[in-house]
């Protein structure tokens, strides 16, 4: 997949050039490649206008996702995915602190200037294997510095989300934030509240699902952003704050819902889950999972002494593996509770989660009236099954009657 995508990114550049346009890889993919990381996706910047990009690749292979900003999605072969092709542009004013009021198609030099940080402002020519650096990004990559392109105060005023992006990139690559950029963030931290909850939430998600999430949290604190984006953790200091950092560090490949559960368990305020999910407009799926994890944490923490049928009900839930990870974050991976849960989760499916003895349809077929208590009845039959009190369909039907 990765190499098919890379090949397609080369092809897109080649085709645009054949048609007489300038085309270069741009932004994150150049940065990642120089760092020796496989880029998540490739972006191409070009002198072709969106309409010209459509002519080169055909209408069926292009989607005008952000044509007013000059962005066109070009669809590749199945294994290669898609690539965003953006026309070199200069952004006009930002009266809403997010969308440029107008964009003007321009040159690579100008296009680099509108990007946020020097490490994100690089271009790469895949045919000549050459980096085009108009902003000193290569030196900052080598030195490990996140530095705003141009005047930090002005760049933050244009788009306040850049403050969170600075933290995210610094944490992700274990980079320092340049002094002037850092001061500007500290000075304007309170203005992050002008950014929509969704955009903040998306940024927080990206920051917190990354393995370096503890570093991100500590940068949120040192920049002053924490008070505005995550006031819930500001009360944690000293030992509990250290502990949270240790616990976050123990997570591997964690979902956003799990990371939130680890943080909220530390804060110990049940209402915090709701206010965070409202604020960041979390998907119900995430919010529900975080809730479920926090509600079942006590059973998880005491899994070594919890009676099996009770624990089994929890371990057959689709959130069980995350619950065990949450317990492991708190107690360490070799705690008795974690060890017991892992053993049980490794049982054959038929033993851990035996198929129900009867379904609702079975009960109706057996002459029971469907009604509101049906669900509860099925639950009780299931409990009896898991507790070993009944083992056959007939026993289940007898119990139902
Ligand atoms: P990631 O790997 O997290 O996607 P990325 O660098 O590709 O990192 P994107 O958010 O995908 O980040 O944006 C692609 C590029 O667009 C960035 O590298 C940067 O040059 C530019 N960019 C994105 N967001 C902004 C912004 N808010 N202000 C200025 N430039 C931005
Ligand atoms: Mg990207």
UniProtKB/TrEMBL annotation:
Q: Where is the tRNA nucleotidyltransferase/poly(A) polymerase RNA and SrmB- binding domain?
A: 174-234
Name residues in a coiled coil. none
Q: Sorted alphabetically, which Gene3D superfamilies does this protein's record hold?
A: Beta Polymerase, domain 2, cca-adding enzyme, domain 2
GO MF assignments: metal ion binding; nucleotide binding; nucleotidyltransferase activity; tRNA binding
CCA-adding enzyme C-terminal domain: which residues?
266-397
Matching entries from SUPFAM superfamilies are given as: Nucleotidyltransferase, Poly A polymerase C-terminal region-like
User: Please, which domain of life does this record's source organism belong to?
Assistant: Bacteria
Q: Which cofactor does it need?
A: Mg(2+)
Task: Reply yes or no: does the keyword rRNA-binding apply.
Answer: no
Q: Name one GO biological process term.
A: tRNA processing
**CDD domains per UniProt:** NT_ClassII-CCAase (cd05398)
Residues forming the Poly A polymerase head domain are: 26-147
Arranged from A to Z, the UniProt key words for this protein are: Magnesium, Metal-binding, Nucleotide-binding, Nucleotidyltransferase, RNA-binding, Transferase, tRNA processing
InterPro entries named in the record: Bact_CCA-adding_enz_type3_sf, CCA-adding_enz_C, NT_sf, PolA_pol_head_dom, PolyA_RNA-bd
Task: Work out whether the entry's keyword set contains Protein biosynthesis.
Answer: no
Protein family: Belongs to the tRNA nucleotidyltransferase/poly(A) polymerase family.
* The protein's name in its UniProt record: CCA tRNA nucleotidyltransferase
């Amino acid at each position: 997949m990765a190499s098919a995508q890379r090949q397609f990114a080369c092809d897109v550049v080649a085709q645009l050039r054949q048609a007489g346009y300038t085309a270069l890889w741009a932004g994150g993919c150049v940065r990642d490649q120089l760092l020796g990381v496989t880029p998540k996706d490739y972006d191409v910047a070009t002198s072709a206008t969106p309409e010209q990009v459509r002519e080169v690749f055909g209408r069926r292979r292009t989607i005008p996702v952000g044509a007013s900003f000059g962005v066109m999605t070009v669809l590749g072969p199945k294994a290669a995915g898609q690539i965003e092709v953006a026309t070199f542009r200069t952004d006009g004013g930002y009266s809403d602190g997010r969308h440029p009021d107008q964009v003007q198609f321009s040159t690579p030099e100008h296009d680099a200037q509108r990007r946020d940080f020097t490490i994100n402002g690089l271009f790469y020519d895949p045919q000549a294997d050459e980096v085009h650096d108009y902003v000193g990004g290569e030196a900052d990559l080598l030195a490990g510095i996140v530095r705003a392109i141009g005047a930090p105060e002005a760049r933050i005023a244009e788009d306040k989300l850049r403050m969170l992006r600075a933290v995210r990139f610094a944490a992700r690559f274990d980079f320092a934030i340049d002094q002037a950029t850092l001061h500007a963030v500290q000075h304007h931290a309170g203005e992050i509240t002008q950014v929509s909850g969704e955009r903040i939430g998306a940024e927080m998600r990206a920051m917190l699902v990354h393995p370096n999430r503890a570093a991100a949290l500590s940068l949120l604190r040192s920049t002053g952003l924490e008070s505005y984006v995550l006031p819930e953790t500001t009360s944690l200091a000293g030992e509990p704050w250290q502990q949270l950092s240790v616990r976050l560090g123990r997570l591997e490949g964690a979902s956003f819902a799990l990371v939130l559960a680890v943080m909220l368990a530390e804060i110990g305020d049940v209402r915090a889950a709701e206010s965070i999910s409202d604020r960041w407009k979390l998907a119900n799926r995430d919010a529900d999972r975080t809730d479920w994890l926090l509600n079942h944490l006590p059973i998880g923490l005491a899994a070594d002494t919890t009676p099996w049928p009770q624990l089994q009900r929890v371990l057959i839930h689709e959130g069980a593996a995350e619950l065990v990870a949450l317990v492991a974050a708190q107690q360490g991976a070799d705690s008795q509770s974690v060890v017991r849960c892992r053993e049980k989760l490794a049982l054959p499916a038929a033993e851990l989660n035996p198929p129900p003895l009867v379904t609702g349809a079975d009960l109706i077929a057996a002459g029971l009236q469907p009604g509101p208590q049906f669900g509860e009845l099925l639950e009780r039959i299931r409990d009896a099954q898991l507790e070993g009190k009944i083992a056959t369909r007939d026993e289940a039907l007898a119990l139902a009657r």
